[in-house]
Design goal:
This protein has about 120 residues and is an all-alpha fold. The chain is built from six helices and no strands. The two termini are about 35 Å apart.
Length: about 120
């Protein structure tokens, strides 16, 4: 739900209908993105099981650190080449990629849980 709301905020930002809608899009995206990281952390045991929880959380934190370094850098590189108008489109693409990766992780985790705990 949060990712979808953030995508809606990015679409509002992408419309570029004026300063108010731009600020509204940023606020909606910001408030929607805020709970994603803690939500994913707290739900890790449901996706990978208690046995692999600590390793998975470590990998999630490492990926978050990598992403927090790479995503703004790529945004800056795009802005330098194509101008600042590309930033809303870039934000939308990153959020769609996040949504797709979340859906894939949900599918994989359901398969993983079924393999680890078959019904008797």
């Amino acid at each position: 739900m949060s990712i979808f709301t953030a995508i809606c905020g990015a679409v509002i930002l992408l419309t570029d209908s004026g300063w108010f809608t731009s600020i509204l899009g940023i606020v909606i995206s910001g408030f929607a993105v805020a709970p994603i990281f803690p939500g994913l952390m707290s739900d890790t045991h449901n996706r990978v099981g208690r046995l692999h929880q600590t390793n998975a959380i470590g990998m999630q934190v490492a990926a978050a650190g990598f992403g927090s370094a790479i995503v703004p850098w790529v945004a800056g590189a795009f802005a330098r080449v194509y101008g600042l108008n590309v930033i809303p489109l870039y934000i939308l693409c990153v959020l769609i990629l996040l949504f797709v990766s979340f859906l894939l992780s949900q599918l994989i985790s359901k398969k993983f849980v079924k393999e680890q705990h078959p019904k008797k």
